[in-house]
Specification:
Length: 201
């Protein structure tokens, strides 16, 4: 199965005060590069969603609906899977991951490919009722639903997942730490990713 990985990197990073995707981790990689490397463990192609200065020649897809949040990036991605797209992405399944989860691993992300019967797959932490909206696996067949959802003025990723229908992968609390978001300078300063990552960044 050919799967495309996509990193959501087009946010304003208002709380951080500077682009989160470009923050350098203790091993010398940026947060964007860390997530890209994790996705490449199971994805033959990886793109960035949003206007970013991507390292290593990473392909970027810009939002077709600026200001519509992460769903705009996902819409542009799924549109690129259509035969008529000038930005052609030759895949029908996508793993979408935010750029600000520097603890995430390819092993965890690959679990999203276990359940493929629904249009989307998400994680839910054992003992919690609410699932995690991102990262997620989504099919290109969800495009029409996504378009109608955005046309209605809706912007919630959680709501979109419910609208398309989804499967859950249940993970424990310890594994869920890999999904920790880094949103503020204080959170980034306290970040520790093991001996290879420890630094005074």
């Amino acid at each position: 199965m050919h799967v495309c990985g996509a990193v959501l990197a087009g946010g304003g990073s208002v709380r951080m005060g500077r682009p989160k995707h470009a923050l350098v981790l203790g091993d010398g990689r940026t947060m964007l590069e860390h997530v890209v490397d994790a996705l490449r463990e199971m994805c033959g192609d990886v793109v960035a969603l949003g206007r970013v200065d991507a390292a290593g020649g990473l392909r970027c897809l810009e939002d077709h609906r600026p200001g519509a949040g992460p769903l705009a990036g996902i819409e542009s991605l799924l549109e690129a899977a259509s035969e008529s797209s000038k930005e052609r992405v030759k895949h029908q399944q996508f793993i979408i991951c935010p750029c600000d989860v520097p603890l995430v691993t390819g092993a965890l992300l690959s679990q999203l490919l276990v359940e493929m019967d629904s249009l989307a797959t998400v994680f839910r932490v054992d003992g919690r009722k609410r699932f995690e909206s991102l990262p997620m696996r989504v099919s290109a067949d969800a495009l029409d639903i996504l378009r109608h959802y955005l046309d209605a003025g809706k912007r919630s990723v959680q709501g979109l997942v419910k609208a398309v229908g989804y499967a859950e992968i249940v993970i424990d609390e310890n594994t869920a730490q890999q999904l920790q978001n880094i949103n503020t300078p204080e959170e980034f300063a306290s970040l520790r990713l093991g001996d290879a990552f420890n630094s005074d960044v």
